[in-house]
Amino acid sequence: MASLTQNSSGFLAKLSALVGAPEDALCLLMSILLGFPLALIHRYTLYGQDPVSQHLFFIVSGVLLGFWNYGWSILHPIITVCATYAIIKRLGSTKQCLQASFLFNMGYLFYGYLTTSTEDYDIKWTMPQCVLALRLIGLSFNVWDGSKPDSELSAFQKQTALKEQPSFLEIAAFSFFPGSFLVGPQFNMKRYQDYVNNRLIATDGNSQKLPDCIIPGIQRSSLGFVYLALYQIGNQFFPEKYLLSADFENLNFVQRCFGVGIWGRINLYKYISCWLMTEGVCTAFGLTYNGKDSSGHLKWDGCANVELLTFENATQYDHYIQSFNINTNHWSAEYIYKRLRFLGSKLYSQVGTLAFLAVWHGFHSGYYMCFIMEFIIMYFEKDMVPILMKHEQLQLLVKENFVARFAFWILLKVYTLIFMGYAIVPFVYLSYPKYMQVYRSIYYCGHVIFFSYPLLAPFIKKAIRQSRPRSHQE
User: Fold this and answer.
1) How far apart are CA 431 and CA 435, in angstroms?
2) pTM of the predicted protein model
3) 142, 325, 327, 329: which is the annotated catalytic residue?
4) Cα(184)–Cα(278) distance, integer angstroms
5) If the chain, 474 residues long, is cut into consecutive pieces of 10 residues, what is the mean pLDDT of each piece?
6) Catalytic site residue 361?
7) Interior/surface letters 49-81, b for 16+ CB within 10 angstroms, e for the rest
8) Active-site hit among 42, 55, 76, 361
C-alpha cells in the first residue's frame, strides 16, 4: 500500500508540474472522476442485488479514495461514523441522541480545525469531515423525527424521518458513498435506503434495471470541466493573491472595484466546477433521480448543488444564495433555520443559521466576516426590493423603455458582480490582515453602503414614496 501511494504521488507530482495545479487538488479531482468507473461497476454488477453487498462496495470504495487523498487520516472519519452509530444505538430515537450526536460531530470537527488549520485554505481530512458532520447530524435529526407522530412533522420531515434505526453498514455506506464522501453533495438516509433497496427508481415494472443515467452524469460533469477551464484561464489573469499585489494597488478606485468583482467570480468557478463533477458522478450512480417532468422525461436533479441559469443571470445577491451550494443551504434551512423556530423571530433564526455555518467552516475570522456581509446585504435587499417593485413610475419606465430596462439590468449586474466579490474576499483570504488590506484599498465601500443602510432606510423610503405620482400618495 505504501509503495502504491508513493508511485501515485510521483505521478501526481509530474502532472502537477505539467498543468501548474497543486498536487493535492489534482488528487482530489482524480478521486472525484474515479466515481465514474465505480458507478459502472456498481451498475452492471451490484445494482438491484443484495443491499449488504452494495453497502460493502460503497464503504470499501469511499475509504480507499479517502486513504489515497489523506493517508491514515482517513481514520478520523471512520472514528466519527463508528461513534455516531454507537450514540444512535445507545440513546435511540431521543432528543438526547440528537444532542450527543450534534456535540460529538461538531466537537470532532473543531478538533480537526484546531490541529490542522493554517492561514490558507487547506485540502486536508477536515474537508470530507465537514461534509460528514452535516450528514451525520442530519441523520440524527431524521432518527429523532422518526419517534414523533406525523402530525408534528413538516412535509420534508415526513419524507426523511426514520421509523427504524439504520444498521451500522447502512450508516457507514451512506457516509462513505464514493460519489459524495470527499466534497458532497448532501443527501438524506431515506434517499440512500430507497436507492439500494430499489425503491428510488422504478422503470417499466422492472426495478432491477437502471435507466440511462451515465450520459446525463457525463453531461453534468462536462459542464464542470467547462467551469474548471474558465477558472484556470481566469486564474492566469486574476490569481488568488492578485488583490494583495502591487499591480492591484496601482489601479484606480473603479478598476479596483471591478477587479474585486471579477476575481470573486473566478474563485466561485472553482467551487462550481467541483460540485458539477460530483453531481455528475452521483447521477451516474442513479442516486440523483427525482421523478419525471411534465413531459415524462426523467429528472436527475435530486442532488443538484448549483443552478447555473440562476447563477449566471443573477441580478440580486439573493440569486447567488438560491443557486450556489444549494444542498448545504437546503440542509441549513431544514435542520438549523426551521429548528430555531422556538426563538420566535425569523431574524434570530437567520442569525443563528449563519453563525452555525461560519463555525462549521472553521475558526478563521474571514468566515465570520463573509457571513456577516451576507447577512447585511440580504437585509438590504429584502428591505429595498419590495419598495422598488411597488414603485409604479420605476416599474413603468423599465417595462416600456428598452434603454432604461437595459441600463437598469447593467446596473444590477455591476452591483451583484462587485458586491459578491466583496463579500467573498474574507472567505478566500481568511486572515484579518489580508482581507482588511483589500477592503482598505477600496475604502470599505461595501461596509459603508450596507452597514449605514439601517440608519438611512427611513429617509430613503420617504424619498422613494415622495417620488411616486401624486394620485397614488397616501
Assistant:
1) 7
2) 0.89
3) 325
4) 7
5) 54 68 84 94 92 96 95 96 96 94 96 86 88 96 93 92 95 96 92 93 62 92 95 92 94 96 95 94 94 85 91 92 90 93 90 92 93 94 86 80 88 95 95 95 96 90 68 46
6) yes
7) eebeebbebbbebbbbbbbbbbeebbebbeebb
8) 361
